[in-house]
Structures are given as structure tokens and as C-alpha cells.
Amino acid sequence: MKNPVHPATRIGHVHLKVADLDRAIGFYSGVLGFEIMQYYSGGRAAFLSAGGYHHHIGLNTWDSLGGTPPPPGHTGLFHTAFLYPDRAALGDAVRRVLDAGIPLDGAADHGVSEAIYLRDPDDNGVELYCDKPESDWPRDAEGNLAMVNNPLDVDALLAEARPAR
Predict the structure, then answer these.
(1) Which residues are 79's β-sheet partners?
(2) Are the CB atoms for 37 and 50 separated by under 8 Å?
(3) CA angle (73, 122, 37) in 5-degree steps
(4) Phi and psi (nearest 5°) for 62?
(5) Per-residue pLDDT tens digits of the chain, which is 165 residues long
(6) CB-based contact 115:160 (threshold 8 Å)
(7) Which of 6, 126, 130, 150 is least enclosed by beta carbons within 10 angstroms?
């Protein structure tokens, strides 16, 4: 790699085209708990965040009002991934999802992180995850990262969830 990006660079937000703004807000705010920071463009967009940031999630219906998800086999978003600070916070998020009756698509221990997979109301993939300490990340004999895809015990994760507020 000739000129790597600055190591403090991060993905700042994701902006999704949705079919129904209220339904999408119901999921991202009502279920996952992101705070609505602003409605925009005559009620056809909203910006949500964690911790008062201007936005981590943008939702709009500008070109997608009443639309359908792309069919299988097409390019596009695979999933958004929301990083939680620890297992207790991740467990709380998973409990919210299950309490809302939203099915999980999967759960995995990747060695570097623990992840839960599901779909939002517009059939976009959503990953909820927490990182493991970097000192615990699996590495091969040469010291290269060696991620895995092992099963994750969701019940154990839920047992560590912070009590419901």
C-alpha cells in the first residue's frame, strides 16, 4: 500500500434510502434506540444519532418512497454495522430487537468481535457488534490477523445485557 489513509479515519455515518420514513424511524429509533436529531426536507428525511452527534444514520424517501428492496443478485449495501462499547450494551440491543419480534439472521464470534445479524424494515442488512480487546484478536504464526466465523452463544450474551431501563 503506497499511501495508507490516516489511522484515525472512520466511517462517520450511513445514509439509507427507505420506503417508509416512519417505519424506518420506528426501527432505528424505537427499537435500536438512536435519537432523532432532525427531520428534514418536508418530512421525507430524518437524521439519528447516538450520544448527541449530528447524525450516524440518515434516512430518506427522496427517491424511494413506497419502493421495494433490490432483488437478490444485485449490487448494493450488504449491511450497516453498529459498534457497541461492550457485551452488556450489545446484549441490551439484542434484547430490544428480540422484544420487538424481529428475527435474527445469525450470530457469530469472529475472534475480533461478536456480532448479531438481522434485517431492517426495508430488508437492509444490519450488524450489531462489539469488539474484543485487540490483545485477544486471533493471529497466525506470522502475526497476521486470523478472523474466524464461530457460533455465538446469544443466550449468554443476553445474560450479560444491562437491565432494561
Answers:
(1) 125
(2) no
(3) 135
(4) -55, -45
(5) 688 998 999 999 999 999 999 999 999 999 999 999 999 868 899 999 999 999 999 999 999 999 999 999 999 899 999 999 999 999 999 999 999 999 999 999 999 999 999 999 999 999 999 999 999 999 999 999 999 999 999 999 999 998 765
(6) no
(7) 6
Question: Amino acid identity of 157?
Answer: L
Work out whether strand 14-17 and strand 57-60 pair parallel, antiparallel, or are unpaired. parallel
**How many other CB atoms are found less than 10 A from the CB of residue 118?**
21
Location of C-alpha cell 455465538: 152
pLDDT in tens, 14-51: 999 999 999 999 999 999 999 999 998 688 999 999 99
3-state secondary structure of 156: helix
Strand pairing category for 113-119 and 104-109: antiparallel
Q: Containing H/E element for 60?
A: strand 57-60
Q: Which three cell numbers stand for residue 13?
A: 455515518
Q: How many CA atoms lie within 13 A of 50 on its CB side?
A: 12
Short-list 87, 79, 159, CA closest to 119: 79
